[in-house]
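pls read this stuff:
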Amino acid sequence: MKESQSYCGILLIIGRSNVGKSTLFNRLLGKKLSIITSKPHTTRHCILGIHTEGMYQAVYMDTPGLHINGEEKCNSLIKNNIYDYLNYVNLIIFIVEGTRWMQNDIMIVNKLRNINIPVLLVVNKIDHIYDRSFLLPHLKFLSQQMNFIEIIPISAKTGVNIDLLIKIVRKYLPKANHKFPKEYLTDRSNYFIVSEIIREKLMRFLGAELPYSINVEIEQFLIKKNDSCHIYALIVVDQLSQKKIVIGKKGKKIKIIGTEARKDIEEIFKKTIYLTLWVKVKSKFIDIDKYLQC
């Protein structure tokens, strides 16, 4: 019996900071994998997400935002986020924001013109455009910037035109065996996924008080016989003075961070989660277990 044809390809999602790359990434996967906040530079690493449906397997790569302050910096960031993957990528998804066309967008598109890979332009956040009479002229302007294979206005937040985007993506998936089993969502470890979820809640609930250098380390990830999962995580900060910011008055801040993180972790892993957080300051530990059992 002849095997059915399969299609598989790698798609690189790029754009400047806060244009909605991670929101689109999660929407395309149908699950929340990449963290989302309004704070610039939320995504620190390239995150790989796998969406398999029938004969199609699309492997998306969510990249850190390109916040470019000069030509030299632009070259470095483009190289790190694109050139390293040129031998593997089948399609580049370049995201811009509504009717805004920024200097960073110009510098990115100048580099994309010299890359021999199809580029799909996605105009995100059209739900934020209150006067739609501006949209059509702007799309015409964008079409003149380079030879995009298509330009698609979408709302990653509400799902507008996502089905159309998926159909176009499938046209650029080459005939190939699937690279991952169909149940795989990412190549990242459970430790990485959990640490990113906790970091997202820290960014969301600490806001401007959050130190940029804050990090999360998963010490243990234990699955018990009753299929519950016990996770022990360290929140690492640079200075002792930052511990009060993270913990909050009488532990209230860290309590809500842990509670909200646990809910998202349970949604992803479909298990009962017991999450314990500590704060680590340099080589010293502040044990806040008495404040938190989520």
Notes: Strands lie at 7-14, 47-53, 56-62, 89-97, 119-124, 150-153, 215-223, 229-237, 273-281, 284-286. The two ends are 53 Å apart (CA to CA). Residues 252-269 form the longest helix (18 residues). DSSP finds eight helices and ten strands in the chain.
